[in-house]
Design brief:
Layout (H helix, E strand, L loop, with lengths): L2 H21 L6 E6 L7 H13 L9 E6 L7 H10 L4 E5 L1 H10 L5 E5 L19 E5 L2 H15 L5 E6 L4 H18 L2 E6 L3 H13 L4 E4 L3 H5 L1 H10 L4 E3 L2 H6 L3 E5 L1 H16 L15 E6 L12 H6 L2 E3 L1
Parallel strand pairs: 1-2, 1-3, 3-4, 4-5, 6-7, 6-8, 8-9, 9-10, 11-12
Antiparallel strand pairs: 10-11
Length: 327
């Protein structure tokens, strides 16, 4: 081979080396994240999820890609979203909400699923047991049934003269609605109180239910934990204050928006742990070996600014028990 030909061949080979090296680089894993709410209302929770990923060694955009799917309260979108993720064989499906977890579990037995749910994942068949999930799913469960009963009891202590409690649920979010309805009916019956169920799945239906609360002479409002309701925090808080209706929710954000009180787990911690488990699975851990976690921190928050507009005096003993009082 003449010298000029040798240089040409060598140059062509060298030009191909970076391409060959690039071809050998592993693909960045894709995580499909499904949430029933909206992106605008979930910035803090997504920050907590990303923090969990970071603690597990993953930074979004560098060594992991996260695709966010916001249902915006339209649970009928779930089948199409889950089917698409399964067909593209994403590395992990991360969910917040039982309906999304159930849909993912139905769609795949191989792609790992990390969930954050308020219901019993064993009773619903998502895992074999909390200690040994035994399949392709694991995550965090905070058993909202017990939390709902506790929150209802706190409302009764806060409002000892209230006898008729409106309970707002989202029928589109079927499984949590069933759990909440049962928990509150049992808690109300044990206390000799009335629990009146109202349905809302849209902004207009929320407006309509507040008119119904007045007709039914509800003394207070218990809002079921739901991603759609969470995304309507300002609307719900504004209407509750307008109608002088003491109201509660499961997380502090609605109290910050103007509701009277909240009691529940710290949801940001749930999202953070979902992020940690997602990162652990990306590193090679198997969902079957990761026990379902249960939060140990719960917070009781009271908005003392809202109380005067409701003509309420908060008992000092409850103020002392609150984890935070907004003044």
């Amino acid at each position: 081979m003449r010298r000029r030909e040798f240089i040409t061949v060598l140059g062509g080979a060298a030009a191909g080396w970076p391409l060959a090296a690039d071809a050998q680089q592993p693909a960045i894993p894709v995580v499909g994240f499904i949430n029933a709410g909206t992106a605008d209302a979930s910035t803090g929770r997504i920050a907590a999820f990303r923090k969990g990923l970071s603690e597990a060694g993953y930074t979004e955009g560098q060594n992991v890609i996260v695709e966010y799917h916001w249902l915006e309260g339209h649970y009928d979108r779930l089948p199409a979203v889950v089917t698409d993720l399964v067909q593209r064989r994403v590395a992990v499906i991360a969910t917040r909400g039982i309906e999304a977890a159930l849909a993912a579990k139905t769609a795949t037995t191989t792609i790992p699923i990390v969930f954050g749910v308020g219901e019993d994942p064993v009773a619903l068949g998502i895992v074999a047991s909390l200690a040994r999930p035994g399949g392709n799913a694991t995550g965090v469960s905070f058993f909202a049934f017990e939390i709902d009963a506790k929150r209802f009891g706190l409302m009764h202590e806060l409002l000892p003269k209230a006898t008729r409690f409106a309970v707002l649920v989202n029928p589109a979010n079927a499984t949590p609605t069933e759990y909440t309805s049962k928990a509150i009916k049992e808690a109300a019956r044990a206390l000799g109180l009335d629990a009146l169920l109202f349905n809302a799945s849209t902004r207009a239906e929320i407006d309509a239910t507040f008119a119904a609360f007045g007709r039914e002479r509800a003394d207070a409002l218990f809002i079921a934990g739901d991603a759609f309701f969470y995304s309507r925090s300002v609307q719900l808080a504004t209407l509750a204050v307008r109608d002088r209706l003491p109201a509660s929710y499961v997380s502090r954000e609605m109290v910050e928006a103007g509701l009277l009180m909240s009691y529940g787990t710290i949801i940001a911690d749930v999202f953070r742990q979902v992020g940690i488990y997602t990162g652990s699975i990306l590193k090679g851990a198997k969902p079957a070996d990761l026990p379902v976690l249960q939060p140990t921190k719960f917070e009781f928050v009271i908005n003392l600014q809202t109380a005067p507009s409701l003509n309420l005096d908060i008992p000092p003993i409850l103020l002392a028990r609150a984890d935070e009082v907004i003044e």
